[in-house]
Design a protein that fits this description.
Elements lengths: L4 H41 L10 H13 L6 E4 L6 H10 L8 E5 L5 H9 E2 L11 E2 L1 H4 L4 E5 L6 H13 L1 E2 L8 E2 L3 E6 L3 H6 L5 H7 L2 E4 L10 H16 L8 H9 L5 H15 L15 H4 L6 H15 L4 H8 L3 H14 L4
Parallel strand pairs: 1-8, 1-9, 2-5, 5-8
Antiparallel strand pairs: 3-4, 6-7
Amino acid sequence: QRFNQESLNFLSAFANNAAIAIENARLMSQLRQENIQLRQEVQERYRFSEIVGNSTSMQEVFDLLNKIVNSDISVLLEGESGTGKELVAKALHYNGPRREKPIIAQFCGNLAESLLESELFGHKKGSFTGAIRDKKGLFEVADGGTFFLDEIADIPPLIQAKLLRVLQDGEIRRVGDTEIRHVDVRIISATNRSLEDQVEAGQFREDLFYRLNVISIKMPPLRERKGDIQLLVQHFLDTFSIRSGVPVKKITQAAMKALENYNWPGNVRELENTLERAVVLSQDRPITLESLIIPKARELAGGKKTLKEHEKEIVLRSLEEYNGNKTKTADALGVSLRWLHYKLAEWRETEPAE
């Protein structure tokens, strides 16, 4: 047969399709590689070594984590807000046998019962106003992986009953549906309140409590492990350095002492936020007391105020008492108005450096 225009058109179309197929295969391979790399980065981020602490209380946490990491039992994490409960939950997942499957986290506090039920278990189209299509619940999304329920103590009674069914039989039913679906999830829950007290008060099901509390891990507040603060400070400064690609920030001894003596009501999360803010405020200088926006930083560092600092404090307090009236302030302090203007100008000039 002769090679004609029709043959040319066919070959051209075939070549285009082949090129598209090759490009799609390349993109799929690249996507698969990026997915593997991303998964490795996430697993690296949530290694047990990322949970910092040498204190006795934290060593007890590590010992327990190493014993249960390869099991499938339910874990209850107890501790104040900011103690690292979610970090521990993710470390258990990414170092355990379900690491290749998803971990889904759901905050259960302050959510309406109907909304939480729909989020956890899904719903059937038409089951309520606004349900315009069938929706998978998060338990279905987490199938094969781990489900982290944060602030479990806030779950209302109806959902407690449905959650018990998941733990006992691995069964869920979407809102408005009659079909029973099966899921395979490991449940890790967390609370900043005593679930035992909730059970005694009749606000939490006893049978659900025992299902959740197969292993309990108590996360110690930062004020009870102050020996870990230097380690945590260095860990966060190293992390900020890697993230921003700049040299590791230094910190003065006075600033470190203030951090060690502060009570940390927000625990490790508050320490991390304080340091991140201090890194920005200190610019290219070491972190000093002035960079730490925590109450009574200087007193915490053990330092006493200088005469000039006392002078500034008294003058500014008096100025505030007289609603910014400089004449009345000068009269009350027994100084000249000129002296007061001079001091205020002097302090304005030094403000940026503080």
